[in-house]
Design brief:
Elements (H helix, E strand, L loop, with lengths): L16 E5 L3 H12 L3 E5 L5 H8 L4 E3 L13 E4 L4 H13 L3 E4 L12 E5 L2 E5 L5 H16 L19 E6 L10 H9 L2 E4 L16 E4 L11 H13 L3 E6 L9 H10 L3 E5 L4 H8 L12 E5 L14 E6 L5 H10 L7 E6 L7 E6 L3 H8 L5 E5 L16 E3 L7 E3 L3
Parallel strand pairs: 1-2, 1-4, 2-3, 4-5, 8-11, 8-12, 9-10, 9-11, 13-14
Antiparallel strand pairs: 6-7, 14-17, 15-16, 15-17, 18-19
Helix pairs in contact: 6-7
């Protein structure tokens, strides 16, 4: 039998009687698959695996503890033979052929009237692959396709849907990370590929929007510092209104939706209006963008903790020590005031400061100075948002730090004790 002779189809066996001849591991796998499809399964075999006996004891299938008889085929819709004895399997297949029943012969795939494909289920998609009678090849291909669907590399979005009137869709708050499309989570990308409507921020993995199907509607609600063209209450309303029309809505955000992203407000509004909402965490820029410049927010021997703030008003409440990292988000406009506030709280003016603009993007730029100099440096070169500002001794670890910052080799063997370089 050549692969060209195969006519792929899918059988609906719900409530229909089927026969499995054989009681070994192959018969067990096939019986379980048929049960999953809702078939009424009868197993005929003198002996059976422990699992098959357990299914029989639980009343999930019928086990006839004897040899096969031709009359076992009476009234069945589908046959699977897997006795491990070629002569028996051949006889079952011949009897099935005489009665015009489709039969899978596990002993001889070339002579078999039907083949069992390698199967995987992703969401409500069932993948079935035949590979010219090579089961390992079929399984490898099945796994690759399933992975591509699960990660969003292949589209899972529905195109033929039932009438959505009277039904409610859903909202997913998806954290897209700091901007690079490779930093969105697998779950987030998968949901994006299923979306009917995407409500998008200015930041986040914007290039993924270009991969959406032409009929996916993108609603732009991006904000810039001091300029919110779509107020938050209106964003909340958009999410609910679209979902109440039966749409799958993805709110695509930069970073993490629950880290200074107002995701909590959006989720609460959805729930108050009867809309199912899922929150998909993202890679927050507070940690990932400094990492793009080689700056850890904690480091043995330098810092055990860190604080994330959005403006200089909160700085009076954080420890003013070089060994406690301060991460400023949306802080470019207030940088001079923030530096003065930290200095006024006792943080030394020679404390290292790093600014990372457009983290992970092709136009990323890193500026490193001290608490006393960073505001002048930023103004001189025109530092602009999006940018993350890191204040503390951890900046010394960055490969972008000037050489005179690296006066100590901070040991990971003896934590919390600087080891002075000797060369």
């Amino acid at each position: 039998m050549a692969i060209q002779d195969i006519y792929p189809t899918a059988l609906r066996l719900l409530g229909r009687p089927v026969l499995v001849v054989g009681g070994g591991p192959v018969a067990e796998r096939r019986a379980k698959g048929l049960l999953d499809a809702g078939a009424v399964v009868t197993v005929v075999a003198p002996v059976a695996t422990d699992n098959l006996r357990g299914l029989s004891d639980a009343g999930l299938l019928t086990w006839e503890r004897r040899e096969y008889r031709t009359e076992d085929l009476d009234g069945v819709w589908f046959v699977q033979t897997a006795t491990g004895t070629s002569a028996v399997d051949t006889q079952v297949a011949a009897d099935a052929e005489a009665q015009r029943l489709w039969c899978v012969n596990a002993s001889d795939h070339e002579a078999s009237a039907a083949w069992t494909p390698a199967v995987a289920v992703v969401d409500d998609v069932k993948i079935a692959i035949n590979a010219g009678g090579d089961p390992r090849r079929a399984m490898a291909l099945r796994n690759a396709v399933a992975t591509a669907l699960e990660t969003g590399d292949l589209p899972l979005r529905r195109h033929r849907t039932p009438d959505a009137s009277g039904t409610t869709g859903s909202v997913a708050l998806v954290g897209g990370g700091p901007g690079d499309s490779g930093l969105i989570t697998v779950r987030g990308r998968r949901l994006l590929g299923q979306a009917d409507v995407v409500v998008a921020d200015r930041l986040g993995p914007r290039e993924l929007l270009n991969e959406l199907a032409p009929d996916v509607r993108v609603i732009e609600v991006g904000k810039t510092p001091g300029h919110h063209p779509v107020p938050q209450l209106e964003i909340n309303r958009i999410l609910v209104d679209e979902a109440l029309q039966g749409k799958r809505v993805v709110r695509l955000k930069g970073g993490d939706p629950y880290v200074l992203g107002r995701g909590g407000e959006e989720a609460e509004f959805c729930r108050q209006n009867g809309v199912e909402v899922e929150v998909v965490p993202g890679v927050t820029s507070a940690i990932s963008v400094p990492a793009a410049a080689g700056i850890p927010v904690t480091h043995r021997g330098l810092a055990k903790g860190f604080s994330v703030v959005t403006g200089h008003e909160e700085l009076s409440e954080v420890p003013a020590r070089p060994d406690h990292t301060v991460v400023l988000l949306m802080g470019v406009a207030q940088l001079r005031d923030s530096a003065a506030s930290l200095a006024g709280s006792g943080l030394p003016l020679d404390t290292p400061v790093g600014i990372v603009e457009n983290g992970y993007l092709p136009n990323q730029r890193v500026t490193i100075g001290t608490l006393g100099s960073i505001a002048d440096q930023a103004e001189a070169i025109g530092v602009a948002n999006p940018a993350v500002i890191v204040i503390g001794d951890v900046v010394r670890v960055s490969p972008f730090a000037p050489q005179h910052f690296k006066t100590a080799d901070y040991s990971t063997i003896t934590p919390n004790r600087p080891r002075v370089r000797t060369n």
